[in-house]
Amino acid sequence: MTVNKVREIDFANIEGPVYTGRDRGERLREKFQMDEIDNSDAVVKIIIPENTYSISSSFFLGLFGPSIVKCKTREAFLEKYQFDTTKFLMGVVDQHIARALQERSLFS
To answer: What are the C-alpha distances in Å from 63 to residues 2, 3, 67, 93, 107?
Structure first.
């Protein structure tokens, strides 16, 4: 992967506006080749539309949990995975990141 390449994941292209299910998040993780992204210098812009109703922790952690743990801190994760969303949904994202960091063993 190209150094400093910017990738984009747009939730508008994922069936929504409710995002639930760890298995669904894990399938998307595989589809988007998140493990490869984690091991590269790529930066990923995550677009979560304002019409999103809900993002469950199980879905979010299925998609991003291993990436959060690999980054080790909220700040490092948000530097690599840059979220473009509403203030409310960013609060939800922050809660899910905190949970992943508290429950690291779930993703190892």
So the answer is: 22, 23, 8, 12, 11
**SS3 for 49?**
coil
Q: Whole-model pTM? A: 0.89
Task: Give backbone dihedrals phi and psi of 46, rounded to 5 degrees, phi first.
Answer: -105, 115
Residue linked to tokens 């390449």: 5
pLDDT of 4 above 70: no
DSSP single-letter state for residue 14: S
Q: Which amino acid is at 29?
A: R
Residue type for 93, please?
Answer: V
Asked if 84 and 45 count as a contact pair (C-beta separation under 8 A), the reply is yes
Q: Which residues pair with 8 in a beta bridge?
A: 45
Q: What SS3 state is found at 59?
A: helix
